[in-house]
């Protein structure tokens, strides 16, 4: 096994929509871990990295982005334009929250699904080595929750979160508009308009992984035997494998590693690839809804977090979502005779409801596949 890959037990995720494309044609290479064999191209060229300042022009930027999202569902955005003080302020405010004693933090819980949670993820038995805070990005919702999160200065906490949300929303919109252009959409802003609708359902999630469940660095780069994970897991799981259900996720973390993405190697077998941390960058994940909207052309990326060694990992993820009533259906430009419609139309509310009945690792989109013979044309995005 090469040092930068973990082969998942029994290759259990041969999902129907899994891309067959190998990782190639990546953009600006960034530092990659040592790698001997599997997923060698990814390892050799580094993770797909996109320079948002568009040194080669906007057209080339949108092509690079579509390629990264079609091949791996994931890229690292550099020169992203997020003001430099926004993220450190958010880190300081959320670190102060997590530094409190447990009874203080519990005042912001339980996660139903918003609020403070510890180890338990969702209501179907998933657990991870982390504590977290989930907030709706609506400023009224932030202000309401801030009273339990920062009892001394709730308004200051709200301001920090609102500034962060605004900055990452702008980044997400820029990415979606560029993807819209690269996909040749008649209205390239149709994707970003879903997440700027006043009643959008976007969330912000802050994960804090304490350094309690230690593996050695060597173990993390090999197949890590479990040390403190019960139940025969192959590694110490901080956050179990899953795809993000929304449209797009914008992830930023401190300089502690742990994030891994699942991608096929040269033989077509899925392997876990560690993503080197970079607090100056944002990592963009395609979510399930974007896969459905693009009729599978862009693929949602399966990822997980493996518990780290000596330092706590702090990550903040903005999940860009449409309004609950938004109807999700393949965009007409993505449906052709050769690429018939893959998913039946559904609302985000319906998708969320289904998601809440399933384990984290479930491939939820498979439940929305159209059967043979009922694949019609694509629809325009509608918000009912
Ligand atoms: O904490 C991380 O780096 C990623 C966590 C994640 O995938 C999630 O919260 O959905």
From TrEMBL:
Q: Which GO terms describe its biological process?
A: gibberellin metabolic process
Under InterPro entries, the record lists: DIOX_N, IPNS-like_FE2OG_OXY, IPNS-like_sf, Iron_ascorbate_oxido_reductase, Oxoglu/Fe-dep_dioxygenase_dom
Q: Which Pfam families match?
A: 2OG-FeII_Oxy, DIOX_N
**E.C. no:** 1.14.11.13
Q: Does the keyword Cell membrane apply?
A: no
Give every Fe2OG dioxygenase domain span.
Answer: 199-322
Molecular function (GO) terms for this protein are: gibberellin 2-beta-dioxygenase activity; metal ion binding
Q: Give the matching Gene3D superfamilies.
A: B-lactam Antibiotic, Isopenicillin N Synthase, Chain
Give the EC class as a word.
Answer: oxidoreductase
Tell me which UniProt keywords the record has, alphabetically: Dioxygenase, Iron, Metal-binding, Oxidoreductase
Q: Which family does it belong to?
A: Belongs to the iron/ascorbate-dependent oxidoreductase family. GA2OX subfamily.
PANTHER family in the cross-refs: 2-OXOGLUTARATE (2OG) AND FE(II)-DEPENDENT OXYGENASE SUPERFAMILY PROTEIN-RELATED (PTHR47990)
Protein name, as recorded: gibberellin 2beta-dioxygenase
Q: Which organism is it from?
A: Oryza meyeriana var. granulata
